[in-house]
């Protein structure tokens, strides 16, 4: 692996992520099997891609997946309204959807997307997120499946970026202070 000196501390290791994704995949399998349905996984680009890939290895159902890009996130603070940059290619009328997110922070993104998908006629919408930052929530959004709860710190790795960097790290960490020096946060 390329040598990375920008991470100040590791919050969640590669092994922890793998173990937790397996647990969540098993739970998701059981929950949907119990109602005799298989969800369409809708992953929000780009941060959720590694989590989606890890999760689907452990979901023992005839699932499909699709992508949406709805970000309006620049730097480390959420700004403005949510825009649809890429919409789904799949029709979702009557479909059970499992949204896959990297992190639920204020909850604004996921809340808006859930409402949008329900409005389009989805039969049900559930949320699986790798990370949850409940201390930052501005609404009552609760994910159905949560990998790990994290404190109010800006994290990178396993899909999550800082100005598009660090997404490919196999673990989740916090950047050293000097990595933000002279850059907007
Ligand atoms: P929300 O709408 O819940 O405030 O933010 C959702 C999006 O903001 C996440 O899907 C993620 O892309 C981005 N985000 C929120 N917190 C963090 C963080 O700590 N690190 C990174 N890299 N992105 C974050
Ligand atoms: Mg995201
Ligand atoms: Mg981002």
Automatic annotation (TrEMBL):
<dbReference type="GO" id="GO:0032264">
    <property type="term" value="P:IMP salvage"/>
</dbReference>
<dbReference type="GO" id="GO:0005829">
    <property type="term" value="C:cytosol"/>
</dbReference>
<keyword id="KW-0547">Nucleotide-binding</keyword>
<dbReference type="GO" id="GO:0032263">
    <property type="term" value="P:GMP salvage"/>
</dbReference>
<dbReference type="GO" id="GO:0006178">
    <property type="term" value="P:guanine salvage"/>
</dbReference>
<feature type="domain" description="Phosphoribosyltransferase">
    <location>
        <begin position="15"/>
        <end position="162"/>
    </location>
</feature>
<keyword id="KW-0479">Metal-binding</keyword>
<dbReference type="InterPro" id="IPR050408">
    <property type="entry name" value="HGPRT"/>
</dbReference>
<dbReference type="GO" id="GO:0004422">
    <property type="term" value="F:hypoxanthine phosphoribosyltransferase activity"/>
</dbReference>
<dbReference type="InterPro" id="IPR000836">
    <property type="entry name" value="PRTase_dom"/>
</dbReference>
<dbReference type="InterPro" id="IPR005904">
    <property type="entry name" value="Hxn_phspho_trans"/>
</dbReference>
<comment type="pathway">
    <text>Purine metabolism; IMP biosynthesis via salvage pathway; IMP from hypoxanthine: step 1/1.</text>
</comment>
<comment type="pathway">
    <text>Purine metabolism; GMP biosynthesis via salvage pathway; GMP from guanine: step 1/1.</text>
</comment>
<keyword id="KW-0460">Magnesium</keyword>
<dbReference type="GO" id="GO:0000166">
    <property type="term" value="F:nucleotide binding"/>
</dbReference>
<keyword id="KW-0808">Transferase</keyword>
<keyword id="KW-0328">Glycosyltransferase</keyword>
<keyword id="KW-0660">Purine salvage</keyword>
<keyword id="KW-0963">Cytoplasm</keyword>
<protein>
    <recommendedName>
        <fullName>Hypoxanthine phosphoribosyltransferase</fullName>
        <ecNumber>2.4.2.8</ecNumber>
    </recommendedName>
</protein>
<dbReference type="GO" id="GO:0046100">
    <property type="term" value="P:hypoxanthine metabolic process"/>
</dbReference>
<dbReference type="InterPro" id="IPR029057">
    <property type="entry name" value="PRTase-like"/>
</dbReference>
<dbReference type="GO" id="GO:0000287">
    <property type="term" value="F:magnesium ion binding"/>
</dbReference>
<dbReference type="GO" id="GO:0052657">
    <property type="term" value="F:guanine phosphoribosyltransferase activity"/>
</dbReference>
<dbReference type="Pfam" id="PF00156">
    <property type="entry name" value="Pribosyltran"/>
</dbReference>
<comment type="function">
    <text>Purine salvage pathway enzyme that catalyzes the transfer of the ribosyl-5-phosphate group from 5-phospho-alpha-D-ribose 1-diphosphate (PRPP) to the N9 position of the 6-oxopurines hypoxanthine and guanine to form the corresponding ribonucleotides IMP (inosine 5'-monophosphate) and GMP (guanosine 5'-monophosphate), with the release of PPi.</text>
</comment>
<comment type="similarity">
    <text>Belongs to the purine/pyrimidine phosphoribosyltransferase family.</text>
</comment>
<dbReference type="GO" id="GO:0006166">
    <property type="term" value="P:purine ribonucleoside salvage"/>
</dbReference>
């Amino acid at each position: 692996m390329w040598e990375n000196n920008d991470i100040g501390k590791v919050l969640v290791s590669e092994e922890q992520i793998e173990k937790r994704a397996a647990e969540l995949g098993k739970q998701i399998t059981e929950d949907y099997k119990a109602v005799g349905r298989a969800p369409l996984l809708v992953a929000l680009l780009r941060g959720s891609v590694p989590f989606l890939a890890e999760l689907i290895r452990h979901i023992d159902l005839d699932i499909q997946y699709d992508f949406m890009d709805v970000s309006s996130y620049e730097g480390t603070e959420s700004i403005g309204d949510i825009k649809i940059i890429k919409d789904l290619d799949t029709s979702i009328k009557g479909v059970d959807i499992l949204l896959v997110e990297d992190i639920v922070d204020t909850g604004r993104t996921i809340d808006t997307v859930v409402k949008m998908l329900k409005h389009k006629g989805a039969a049900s919408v559930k949320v699986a997120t790798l990370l949850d930052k409940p201390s930052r929530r501005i609404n009552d959004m609760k994910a159905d499946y949560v990998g790990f709860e994290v404190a109010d710190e800006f994290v990178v790795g396993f899909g999550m970026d800082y100005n598009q960097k660090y997404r490919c790290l196999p673990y989740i960490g916090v950047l050293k202070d000097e990595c933000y020096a002279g850059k907007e946060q």
